[in-house]
Amino acid sequence: MNRHNSRPVVLCLSGHDPSGGAGLQADIEALLAQGCHAAPAVTALTVQDTVNVSDFRVLDRDWVLAQARAIIADLPVAAVKLGMLGSVQMVDTVVEIMQALPGVPLVCDPVLRAGGGGSLGKDDVGYAMRERLLPIAAVATPNLPEARILAELPEGTADECAAKLSAYCQHLLITGGHGDEAEVHNRLYVRGGDCHTFTCARLPGSYHGSGCTLASTLAGRLALGEEVVSAVRSALDYTWRTLRDAEQPGHGQFVPRRLPLDFCS
């Protein structure tokens, strides 16, 4: 039997998207592309397609804890990526899981709305994330609408949201692309005042799973030992390429192409 050095393991706590565009499938594909091993633990089941989400069900916390504990007992977890949690109870469950992983970087993608606008959790979930998860996260990756929910600033700019949220989080990456500007500006805010801006060309169309792709890639880069600013740049570059090469498998949004066509050949 051939044995190779183990790939870094990333524990993914997120929801299942039956369309395959977002959620845990997006995490798995993006992490494979980084040379990492994804260990997916399901937090919620959703009814959604590439257009929008119509319903969801959060799993019982004991099931989620059991999944995570089985992974932690068996595999050397090098990073954790959060996606859809869906309830305050699930936020508390993640906090408990992270207590068993001291020093392991956590990437928090605060999934509160689907790409089509449908809710994936009540507003109190956003408050719980801000108060309990952002302080233990290495990086949080909200888009601007999510940052506004977290900061409780319905019309706030990225800078205004960051001014409030940076008090909770060491690194805050607020992604752009929700306006009509020709270039997309993604801003990494570091507690203490530093800000790094990453600019890319706007691509036509709308995309299903771009946030999941970015956050899981970032977790993978951190698991590989990359420094935060460099890891953010790597994750943004990779995500942009997956959107550039995206395909439209159904009647809704485009889905990022996270793996090359010949990946399994």
User: Structural class, from secondary structure content?
Assistant: alpha/beta
CATH level 3 topology: UDP-N-acetylmuramoyl-L-alanine:D-glutamate ligase
Number of helices: 8
* Proportion in helices: 25-40%
The CATH architecture classification is: 3-Layer(aba) Sandwich
Order of helices and strands: EHEEHEHEHEHHEEEHH
Number of strands: 9
Give the strand content: 15-25%
Largest sheet: 6 strands, mixed
In what order do the strands lie side by side in the largest sheet? 3-2-1-4-5-6
Query: End-to-end distance, in Å?
Result: 22 Å
Please tell me the total number of domains.
1
The CATH class name reads: Alpha Beta
What is the average of the pLDDT values?
92
Global outline: globular
Low-confidence stretches: none
Oligomer: single chain
CATH homologous superfamily descriptor: Ribokinase
Radius of gyration: 17 Å
Pfam families: Phos_pyr_kin
Domain Pyridoxamine kinase/Phosphomethylpyrimidine kinase: 17-253
GO molecular function: hydroxymethylpyrimidine kinase activity; phosphomethylpyrimidine kinase activity
Keywords: Kinase, Transferase
Task: Describe the overall structure.
Pfam families: Phos_pyr_kin (PF08543). Residues 17-253 form the Pyridoxamine kinase/Phosphomethylpyrimidine kinase domain. With 265 residues, this protein is an alpha/beta fold. It has a single domain, classed as Ribokinase (UDP-N-acetylmuramoyl-L-alanine:D-glutamate ligase). The protein is built from eight helices and nine strands. Strands 3-2-1-4-5-6 form a six-stranded mixed sheet, with helices on both faces. A hairpin with a 4-residue loop joins strand 2 and strand 3 (53-58). 50% of the residues are buried. The model has no long low-confidence stretch (mean pLDDT 92).
